[in-house]
């Protein structure tokens, strides 16, 4: 399968790793939309939140459990925003489930 984030997890494409565990891999976004912009992805390929099911609940919960740990590593004591774009209308450009972790400043209220 031709998937950018699978290639990053495998190390075939370089990334700035922030965190890794059994279920998840986190790295800095190449085009940051905030002073701190990190992506956390499941190591197992899941296309989007739309594909979340009982079959992958351990993987998905593993990724969610990693988010507060990653936020702590990134020094986001003041808070942060978690976003996951889904499909065409959600403007999802990479079809491998990922959560954007954004912070490092007071984010605008209007940012979806
Ligand atoms: P989305 O639009 O929600 O699918 O988000 C995809 C994100 O992946 C965007 O914020 C991109 O900047 C980011 N991205 C694309 N290629 C890379 C890469 N090679 N390394 C890190 N982040 C990337
Ligand atoms: Zn993938």
Give a brief rundown of this model:
By secondary structure, the chain is an alpha+beta fold. Helices cover 21% and strands 22% of the residues.
Could you please describe the fold and organization of this structure?
The protein is globular. It has 2 helices and 5 strands; from the N terminus they run H-E-E-E-H-E-E. The chain has one domain: HIT-like (HIT family, subunit A). Strand 1 and strand 2 form a beta hairpin. The model has no long low-confidence stretch (mean pLDDT 97). It is α+β, with helices and mostly antiparallel strands and 112 residues long. The N and C termini lie far apart (31 Å). A 5-stranded antiparallel sheet has the order 1-2-3-5-4, covered by helices on one side. Adenosine monophosphate (AMP) binds next to loops.
């Amino acid at each position: 399968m031709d998937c950018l984030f699978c290639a990053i997890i495998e190390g075939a494409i370089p990334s700035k790793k922030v965190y890794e565990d059994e279920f998840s891999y986190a790295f800095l976004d190449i085009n940051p939309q905030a002073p701190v912009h990190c992506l956390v992805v499941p190591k197992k390929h899941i296309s989007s939140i739309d594909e979340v099911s009982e079959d992958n609940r351990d993987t998905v919960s593993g990724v969610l459990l990693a988010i507060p740990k990653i936020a702590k590593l990134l020094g986001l004591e003041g808070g942060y925003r978690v976003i996951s774009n889904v499909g065409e209308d959600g403007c999802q450009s990479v079809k491998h489930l990922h959560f954007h972790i954004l912070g490092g400043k007071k984010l605008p209220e209007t940012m979806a």
